[in-house]
Amino acid sequence: MTFERIVKNIDSLPPLSNAANIIQTLYAGGLENLDVSRLIRVIQSDAMLAANILKMINAPYYGFDNRIASVSQAVSLFGTSKIYMLVIHYAISQQLKADPSIYGFTNAQFNDVCNLQSALMLQWYSKVNARDARFLTPLALMMESGKLILANEVIKSDYCGEFRKGFNECENIQEYEMSLIDMTSYHLSALLFEHWNLEPRYVEILKSLDSKEEPEEKDPSKKLRSYKKELDVIRTAINVKDILSDNSIKKASNMVNEMGLDAEHFEDVAHKIRKSYIG
Questions:
Q1: DSSP string covering 31-68, please?
Q2: Three-state DSSP class for 105?
Q3: Under a CB-based contact definition with an 8 Å cutoff, are residues 59 and 118 in contact?
Q4: Could you tell me if 204 and 224 are in contact, meaning their C-beta atoms sit under 8 angstroms apart?
């Protein structure tokens, strides 16, 4: 299991589905030029994609009171940018076909982690900065994709038992990943995004998550540093070792407080999502 082998396997992955590629093209001209009617038709043309989107949107932790029964209703209520993230997330999961059992999860449970991270970003940060929340919510949904790449490599190796033991005992997931392949699974996510020509800014942000150090900020708006901190909060509260426990919520809340934001609001949202998830 080497970095070179992993990169080679990423480079050999086939394109995303036809529907996902068409939808990427629709979004390429910007949201203001998006043909919403055609978007709905493309999603409806792929029955499994449409069903999966409706299933994800109707999950209790997204906070909709009434059941969403159609693609057009989903687009209207959820918004076109968030629909895009669900399309790409589903397309990625279909291509990777990974077994996340090395993390102690089924595919459904791993998918829940991704959706919970997205829901927390959406519901917490929308009241802080709605524009940034719209930008970061799709990334929060898809940022753990690299763990599926790593899982595939581990399962194909003779390292499964040793990996599980090390993973269960480690205190910091990113440091453990670095000890294995000299990078984190977020860097693998970035390579996936590059391979499938997804949002270049997401690639930059994901690579910044590889390190505890503050990213070198070339953007005068200082956005990259801000994005990293916001995603750090999400992956502290929800990750493959700890899903919205009292401890992980408190650690994330302390980070929110250090950012000068309303920690009480964050905790309220996190506890609400946990309650919806547990049922």
A1: GGG--HHHHHHHHHHSHHHHHHHHHHHTSGGG--SS--
A2: coil
A3: no
A4: yes
The letter for the amino acid at 77 is: L
What is the sign of the dihedral through the CA atoms of 206, 211, 212 and 215?
A: negative
Q: Which residues neighbour 174 within 8 Å (Cβ) at sequence distance 6 or greater?
A: 184, 186, 209, 210, 212
* Cβ atoms of residues 42 and 18 within 8 Å: no
The C-alpha R_g of the chain, in whole angstroms, comes to 18
Residuewise pLDDT in 10s, the chain (279 residues): 566 778 888 888 888 888 888 888 888 877 778 899 999 999 999 999 999 889 888 888 777 778 899 999 999 888 888 888 889 888 888 888 788 888 989 888 998 999 999 999 999 999 999 989 988 998 999 999 999 999 888 888 878 888 889 999 998 999 999 888 888 999 999 999 999 988 889 999 999 887 654 545 455 457 888 999 999 999 999 999 999 999 999 999 999 999 999 999 999 999 999 998 886
- The SS3 of residue 209 is coil
The closest of 56, 55, 160 to 104, measured between CA atoms, is 160
**pTM given for the model:** 0.87
3-state DSSP percent of the chain in helix, strand and coil, to 5: 75, 0, 25
Strands (E), the chain: none
Q: Is residue 41 within 8 Å of residue 221, measured between CB atoms?
A: no
Q: Count CB neighbours of 181 within 10 A.
A: 18
* Contact between residue 217 and residue 225 where contact means Cβ atoms under 8 Å apart: yes
Set out the domains of the chain in order of their start, with CATH numbers. 3-15+88-278 (1.10.3210.10)
- Token readout for 71 is 């693609």
**Distance between CA atoms of residues 146 and 160, nearest Å:** 17
